[in-house]
Write a structure and sequence with these properties.
By secondary structure, the protein is of the alpha/beta class. The protein folds into two domains: about 375 residues, no CATH class; about 120 residues. The strands form two sheets. The chain has a five-stranded mixed beta sheet with strand order 4-3-5-7-6. Strands 1-2 form a two-stranded antiparallel sheet. Strand 6 and strand 7 form a beta hairpin.
Length: about 525
């Protein structure tokens, strides 16, 4: 018996088995095509993130060779701590510093090969650079591929993140850990995996051992998580268990934090925040070093207070991201930016601690919100148009930063003394901790041996890092200079350590001639009888 077969328009047999074969083949072709497109998209995304990472690395490396950016006093203090044995460093930090020990311990091992400024700062450069791909992952987890690429671009070019990626301090590590921890937090909520919760807990534990003010991020995240998981008890329990574990790991440091806080309450260098300083801090976190002039057809036009006006479009983009973005984690980034700043301001009513660099990590939330505002446009071309002026602003600000930003000129002041001092000369420091950066460079210059003393006392003789010069300390100057025909005094940060201006009048009373050699905010003063 002949069985006739019908064919469809494509020529495929329309029998049941043949039809099934047809649809399977077509489905397989679609799947294969989708895999090819996905692989190409992933490779393009990865290549873009790599390019942005290289660009960010270039800007961060560029600042390591600028002559006017020698190590400043806090950076040399980091090196001094890192060169101690790990246990001794922890003891010193616990007794006289205001930070946890993780950065100093990591820097200790980083400095084993060498401790020159370039190598020392390279550790922060690499941490700041590593934050760029983490920013891409964070943005992608929060809102997709486009958001991830825009976030990586902003992290790569943010002037403030570039600046603190060039300092031998813990701030680049803090930003890296905040970005990484926030990424793992989103992953944990989305995937409900134990590994993600453990990774989030590990990042948070490292964070609280890096900077005390970073503790202010925890209530911001907790408020969001408990709101987000209000109908998800297992996720709440997982978060609570994770933070209990973090608290158990942090508990040994808690008494030391109380001791450090007591020292800050007793005496600290920051002044009470004002509306102007708060606005300037927020501007710095979003777009530091805005240009002071613009060149139009060869004319240099002063821009005055342009910086504060820049807050309007940047905040507008953040507001668009908050209200119009597609991410379910908008409130997490808003809380991560605003709540630590608000808590810091509240605490500053009692004891001023409001300072831009200790709040640097809040810029992660702000940058992601701005990226959300840029990515909120339906068409990629519109997002690109919105991104261009922000990138232009960052590039111009980075150029302004490279041209104008200076640090303390310890190398220049040490070189001057090394050139003019005689063996055995007496040099007095208004605070012995300022002796650390001077000695760092002086020893590399192989100047003549000096007799060095701190005022009012030598390092840590009073059990504090920055003792204040008191009237009762003035006779110490006469005792130290007795029999000396000439002497050197190095003044720096004396507004804090010698607020009554006792040192120079006391020296003038003992010596007939005073010659001042200024190196920006460092004064090298030569006295002779």
């Amino acid at each position: 018996m002949n069985v006739s077969q019908h064919h469809d328009k494509s020529g495929w047999p329309s029998g049941s088995a043949a039809g099934l074969l047809k649809h399977q083949s077509m489905a397989q072709a679609v799947i294969t095509l989708d895999k090819i497109v996905t692989a190409r998209s992933w490779l393009l995304e990865a290549a873009t993130v790599l390019v942005l990472t290289v660009i960010g690395l270039t800007f961060r490396l560029r600042g390591l060779v600028v002559p006017t950016r020698g190590l400043w006093i806090d950076e040399v203090f980091s090196i001094w701590l890192a060169k101690l044995s790990p246990w001794t460093a922890v003891q010193v930090i616990a007794s006289i510093d205001q930070h946890p020990p993780l950065y100093a311990l990591l820097l200790h091992f980083w400095l084993l090969p060498r401790d020159d400024p370039w190598w020392t700062r390279l550790f922060s450069v690499l941490l700041g650079t590593a934050t760029i791909p983490v920013g891409a992952l964070l943005g992608r987890a929060a809102g997709g591929r486009r958001l991830g690429l825009i976030a990586a671009c902003l992290v790569a070019l943010s002037p403030e993140l570039v600046r603190y990626s060039q300092e031998a301090r813990m701030y680049a590590l803090v930003v890296f850990l905040v970005s990484l921890g926030t990424f793992f937090l989103i992953q944990a909520i989305e995937r409900r995996s134990r590994a993600s919760w453990l990774a989030f807990g590990a990042a948070t534990a490292l964070l609280v051992y890096t900077h005390n003010v970073a503790l202010l991020l925890i209530p911001a995240q907790a408020i969001f998580v408990f709101w987000k998981t209000r109908q998800d008890p297992p996720a709440r329990r997982a978060y609570t268990a994770t933070m209990v574990g973090v608290g158990a790991l942090w508990l040994p440091w808690a008494p030391i934090l109380l001791h450090q806080a007591a020292g800050v309450i007793q005496r600290f260098w920051t002044s009470a925040p004002t509306p102007s300083s708060v606005g300037q801090t927020i501007l710095d976190l979003l777009a530091a070093f805005p240009p002071g002039t613009a060149t139009v057809v060869g004319l240099h036009i002063p821009l005055g207070a342009l910086g504060f006006w820049l807050l309007i479009p940047l905040c507008a983009l953040g507001l668009v991201g908050l209200l119009g973005g597609a991410s379910r984690y908008r409130l997490l980034f808003l809380a991560s930016f605003l709540i630590p700043i608000a808590i810091d301001l509240i605490l500053s009513i009692w004891r001023p601690i409001f300072e831009e660099r200790v709040l640097l990590y809040t810029s992660v939330g702000a940058l992601i919100l701005i990226a959300m505002g840029i990515a909120a446009a339906r068409r990629p071309a519109v997002s690109a148009l919105l991104l261009i002026p922000v990138v232009w602003l960052y590039l111009v600000s980075l150029n302004n930063y490279d041209a104008t930003f200076r640090k303390e000129l310890w190398q220049s002041s040490a070189a001057f003394v090394a050139q003019h001092a005689q063996p055995g000369d007496l040099i007095l420091f208004n605070a012995t901790w300022t002796q650390l950066p001077f000695d760092y460079y002086y020893q590399r210059l192989h100047g003549p041996p000096l007799t060095e003393h701190g005022l009012p006392v030598d390092l840590f003789d009073r059990g504090v890092l920055e003792p204040e010069m008191l009237p009762s300390d003035v006779p110490t100057i006469a005792r130290l200079t007795s029999g000396q025909q000439h002497a050197w005094v190095l003044l720096s940060h004396d507004w804090y350590n010698d607020p009554r201006h006792l040192i120079r009048p006391a020296m003038r009373a003992l010596f007939s001639q005073e010659t001042v050699y200024p190196f920006d905010n460092i004064l090298v003063i030569y006295y002779s009888r």
